[in-house]
Structure formats: C-alpha cells, structure tokens
Amino acid sequence: MLSLVLMLKALVEFAGLLLVGQGLVYILSFGKHEGNAIYRFMRFLTSPVVRVSRMLAPQFVVDKHVPALAFFLLFMIWVALIIFKFSLLLEAQQ
C-alpha cells in the first residue's frame, strides 16, 4: 500500500512541476507561447489534469484560470498523500 501511495505522490509531483514549467514558459515567451514547442508539449502532458479540473470547476470559472485551479487541486492531493503516507509509516512501526 505504501508503494502505491508513493507512486501516486510521484505522479502528482510530476504533474505539478509540469504545470509550473508551463507557467514559466508562458511568462518567459512574451505572448508567443503557442508557437513554442516546449509549451505545447507541456500543455499536451498536463491536458488530462486540466480537463478534470475543468469538469470539477463551476461554470463561472474562466478557462484561463483552470490551470491554476488544477495546480491547487494537485497541491491538495499531494498534501493528502503525504498525510496518508505518514499514517501508513506510523502504523507499520507499531
């Protein structure tokens, strides 16, 4: 069970870092992000997470803000997985 939690945590960290990288490329490309191959590749890799966030978000949330919501949701999942990991480790010690 611990290995499953660790793998899920690693996937969440990877997706979160991809979203951070995508945001940095967006900022550094000065409006020409759609022509950037790295940005498009990161957008391709993060599209499942952003799509799920769009489904979970209410309709009044603007599409422009959905990647930020996706990052926030990934952060909350990451924190929950860390807490679950520590509870598994404490349970294994006893």
Structural category is mainly alpha
User: How large a portion of the residues is in β-strands, by DSSP E?
Assistant: under 5%
Order of helices and strands: HHH
Please give the number of β-strands: 0
How many structural domains can be distinguished in the coordinates? 1
Radius of gyration computed on alpha carbons:
16 Å
Question: Percentage of helical residues?
Answer: over 70%
Query: Which regions are unreliable across 5 or more consecutive residues at pLDDT < 50?
Result: none
- Taken from the alpha-carbon principal axes, the silhouette is elongated
How many helices? 3
- Which whole number gives the mean pLDDT? 93
Largest sheet: none
Give the CA-CA distance, first to last residue.
16 Å
